[in-house]
Amino acid sequence: MSARDSILAAVRANRPQGKHPLPDLPAFPLDDGGDRTGFFLNNLRAMGGDGVREGEVADLLAVRFPEATVIASAVPEHPGNRDLTHVTHPRDLADVDVAIVRARFGIAETGSVLLVDDALIVNAVAYLAQHLIVLLDPADILLTLQDAYRRPEVQWHHYASLHTGPSATADIEGVLIHGAQGVRSLTVLFRPSDTPISYPSASRPAQ
C-alpha cells in the first residue's frame, strides 16, 4: 500500500459517523443597476481584464494580437493552429501566444469567469498562454459569488477555476506586473453558446 493509500484509508476510518450537512449558504443582495453585463464588465476591467460585447474571434485576434503565431483553441468558433487534444504534457503549451476557451459562467460581482476541465481540454492552457480570450454567453452571468456556489459545475467537475482578470503581482517595489505567474491579458468576448450544457440534478458521487 502506498503512502497516499495509507493516508486516505486512515482518513476514511476516522471519519465521523452520521450525516453532517453543510450550513446554508446565505444570499446577499446586490444591485447591478439594471445592467448586469455592464456591471460585470466594469468589475472585470477594475481587475485588469477587458471585455468586448460583440464581434468575431478572428477579428479580435487580428486587432489585439496581430503578431500572435501560435493559437490554441478549445472552442468551435475558431480553429486555432495548436490542437489541444494532441497535447501530451502541459509544457508543450509554453509557446502558445493566445488561448481561446469558453467559460461556463461569469460573476458580475467580481468580473470573474469559471473555467472547467472539459472546456479547457488541457487545464494548463489557461495559465501558460501569453494571452487568454474567454467566450462568455451573456445569459450565463450570475450576480454574486453565492449564486456561483449554487451552480452544479462546482460539484460536477474535477477541476474548476475562477479567473478574475490576468495574472498580476505588485509585491516588487510596488510596481504592478501582469503575467507574473500566468496570462498577461484576459479578454472576455460575449458570445452566446450554441451547445447548452446540462447537469444531472443529483450530486456527483464522491471519488
Structural write-up:
The protein has 207 residues and is an alpha/beta fold. It has a single domain (30-190), classed as Rossmann fold (3-Layer(aba) Sandwich), CATH 3.40.50.10420. The chain contains seven helices and eleven strands. It has helices spanning 3-13, 36-46, 57-64, 117-120, 125-128, 145-149, 153-156, and strands at 50-52, 71-73, 98-102, 105-107, 112-116, 131-136, 141-142, 160-163, 168-169, 177-178, 185-190. The strands form three sheets. Strands 1-11-6-3-2 form a five-stranded parallel beta sheet. A four-stranded mixed beta sheet has the order 7-4-5-8. A hairpin with a 4-residue loop joins strand 4 and strand 5 (112-116). It is globular, with a radius of gyration of 19 Å. The model has no long low-confidence stretch (mean pLDDT 89).
Summarize the structure.
The protein has a single domain, classed as 3-Layer(aba) Sandwich (Rossmann fold), CATH 3.40.50.10420.
Number of helices: 7
What is the CATH architecture descriptor? 3-Layer(aba) Sandwich
Biggest sheet features: 5 strands, parallel
Secondary structure category? alpha/beta
Secondary-structure element order, N to C: HHEHEEEEHHEEHHEEEE
Question: Helical residue percent?
Answer: 10-25%
Computed CA radius of gyration, to the nearest angstrom: 19 Å
Q: Which parts are unreliable, with pLDDT below 50 for 5 consecutive residues or more?
A: none
What number is the mean pLDDT?
89
Kindly, what is the distance between the CA atoms of the first and last residues, rounded to a whole number of angstroms? 18 Å
Strand order of the largest sheet: 1-11-6-3-2
Q: State the shape.
A: globular
Write the CATH fold name.
Rossmann fold
CATH class: Alpha Beta
Number of strands: 11
